[in-house]
Amino acid sequence: MRKMKKAIVLAAALMLGGTGAFAEQSKWNYRAFVYLWTPELGGTSVTGQDMTLSFSDILDNLDFGLMGALEANKGPISIMGDFQYLDLSSDQNAAVGPGIPATADADVSGFVFTGSVGYDFKHTQPGQFVGFGGFRYLGMDTTANLSVGTGSQRVSGSISNFDAIIGVRGVQPLSEKWALSFIADVGAGDSDLTWQAGATFDRRINNWNLSFGYRHIAWEIGNSNVVSDLSFSGPIVGAKIAF
Fold first, then answer.
1. Residues 28, 179: Cα–Cα separation, whole Å
2. Which superkingdom is the protein from (predicted)?
3. C-alpha span between 34 and 225 (Å, rounded)
4. pLDDT (tens digit, 9 = 90+) per residue, 23-68?
5. Which of 4, 39, 101, 177 is deepest in the core (most CB within 10 A)?
6. 77: nearest Cα among 156, 132, 153, 7
């Protein structure tokens, strides 16, 4: 809780520190990032079992997925929201003996949202270097049904964690057409620890950018009836559009 309060105070300080420049600007600038993240899911169950699910496994069992981010800038002030949603399901049929059918099905849905307010220390120069404070929300619901013969059992669990975060992100121009974007943050709250690191190379094409790189987000969950730690890591590709 102390870590969360410190992060919230920092976010407020960043916002108030840019109030003068914020008032001098009359126009908001927006940038959307629509992307496909192809992560491997890793983690440890509360019983101590390691869990690994590759992107091909996720894709085979994917019912619905949606990912994107929106950034708004006004002078040095920056507001950003980033989200990922996945809905997975799997059904298996087998037999445990002659004439004894067995079925198992599992459903997993997860939502991650990161919101932040930051101050761009390079707003009078090319590129960006933003210090920010905000929060990350992780919501996950899991349900499994096992049926053997005429008997069945249902198991379910959920996670709903809010964590305060602080971090830096930015854009460093490399040439007239190319730039390097990066982000790193760390925080805690309902989780013992959460952190993120990622970078993309951006190729400018008219008023949009083609982006590709790598991203990692992780949690040490702490008190949970589902998993003790969780991570997503893998390549990312998408388009950044200014409007």
1. 22
2. Bacteria
3. 33
4. 445 689 999 999 988 878 777 766 666 666 666 766 666 666 789 9
5. 39
6. 132
Q: Amino acid letter at 159?
A: I
Class assignment of domain 2-242? mainly beta
Residue entry with tokens 């919101």: 115
Mean pLDDT, range 80-84, rounded to an integer: 94
* Residue closest to 35 by CA, chosen among 212, 240, 242, 238: 238
Q: Where are the alpha helices (DSSP H) in the chain?
A: 2-17, 19-24, 55-60
Q: How far apart are alpha carbons 92 and 105 in whole angstroms? A: 6
Q: CA gyration radius for the chain?
A: 21
